[in-house]
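Pilot study result, target chain (344 residues):
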Amino acid sequence: MATQELLLFYFSGTGNSKNVAQWMSAVASKYNIESSINNISDIDINSIKPISIDSLVVFVSPVHGFNYPPVMLRFIARFPKGKNNVVLMDTRAGMLIGKYNLPGLSGAAFLFSSLLLLNKGYSIAGMKSVDLPSNWMSLHPGLNERTIRILHEKHKAQVIDFGEKILSGKRIYVPFHEFIIDTIVAPISIGYYFIGRFLFAKTFYASGDCNNCDICVKNCPVKAIVKINNRPFWTFKCESCMRCMSNCPKRSIEAAHGFIISYCLISSALTGLFFYYFNSFVFVIPDGLIRYVIETSLFLIFLGVAYRVIHYLMRFNFFERIMVYTSLTKYKFWGNRYKALKNF
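Predicted structure:
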């Protein structure tokens, strides 16, 4: 059945996935196909009406920890049942080495979302990974303008080509070599889902340059930033989408590299002491799932307490300066804030 409507649902922090949705919509317009672009952060999932069988549904999301972020997975899990064709797209951490594109990795992004949609009755008509500029400054330096423009130009053309083929009725899936690599790294996504994303949620803080404009609080797509003691505070709901850091007019939001390194060392020591005491005076906890659950729980409890203490100490100028200058995002070689090119 010919596509009569293109329904695009996206999640985006700094604009990559939004751009992909807009490029796909432009292809639809070229073929006189009606399209709608929907930001899932603004949608009440219960308000979605039954979808016409001749509508093609597209989900676009960044990859976080080798998977779709929880906010997108939850949206798909609650999406109404249907018989439509569905296309899955992700934006990955693209980079350049010289003139060569270094692609990102999708991991389990298409696997888990496909299983959820197939169980709802949908048919997967296509998959496409788009290597747009990485914005994850918690782990690597921000990219320069040349790299950002080159990656946009190259991958916009690829998205348009993909869109034309999909709308003409072709089915396009992940190349076999990518499937093998993604399968290998997919297990890491489980660790990120249960531990890693909570760790990274506590890597953000507002320095003394913050003027309490509350832009980060108002614009957070998952409402993960609150005000405590008149200072932005990042809760465990944070998806590390980087919107806050990229849009702060004062560039006051930093990643707490020094704190996280220190915390991991201290947490490991405290956890070790806990197990030493428990095994010596209560009963021995054997290696296995129970020990893993206890270690993970202790890690997150220590993290929540430590971050709250750090938040309190940031009111003192001496401590605030230590936090700032032990953050790599403070320095020019690392701290280029990223925003996707608009109207590109």
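One observation from the pilot: The chain has a mean pLDDT of 91. A full batch analysis is planned for the follow-on phase.
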